[in-house]
Amino acid sequence: MEDCLFCKIIEGKIPSDKVYEDDDVLAFRDINPQAPVHVLIIPKRHISGADKLERSDDALLGKLVAVANRLAAELGVSGTGYRLISNIGDDAGQSVHHLHIHLIGGKRLNWDN
Ligand code: DGP
Asked: Annotated active-site positions, please?
């Protein structure tokens, strides 16, 4: 989608530190990491957020989570624990309107609010 930052990353117009890619999914390190491991897992098809997923996307969502879990193991945090988050809308702090799952781990995480 035009003017979507993550679509530009998918197209290679903006560089990223990729950690996984297949036909449907891309994962790359967050530019502003909140923990030693902070990766974003995104669908290559533009979906503006998790609230816009449809029943026909069930398999895609399952794949995004499966990739996240696999990356957690590869990046060494599956034993210590990690968080999978998808922010939706302003109050959650969603700043990029292309569905993404944050994989965050490698330190003890707080739960402030
Ligand atoms: P959210 O606030 O949930 O919409 O998360 C968006 C994340 O995207 C945020 O943690 C920072 C990250 N981000 C923004 N721009 C870029 C970029 O150009 N490259 C990378 N790798 N990450 C980005």
From this structure: 100
Q: Mind listing the domains of the chain with CATH numbers? A: 5-105 (3.30.428.10)
User: 109 CA distance to ligand 1 centroid (A)?
Assistant: 19
Residue range 80-101: mean pLDDT, rounded: 98
How many Å lie between the centroid of ligand 1 and the Cα of residue 16?
A: 11
Give the whole-angstrom CA distance, residue 91 versus residue 10: 27
Element (H, E) at 72: helix 58-74
Q: Which residues contact 103 (CB under 8 A, 6 or more apart)?
A: 27, 37, 38, 39, 40, 41, 68, 71, 72, 75, 82, 83, 84
How confident is the model over 19-69, as pLDDT tens digits?
Answer: 999 999 999 999 999 999 999 999 999 999 999 999 999 999 999 999 999
Q: Strand 37-43 and strand 101-105: pairing?
A: antiparallel
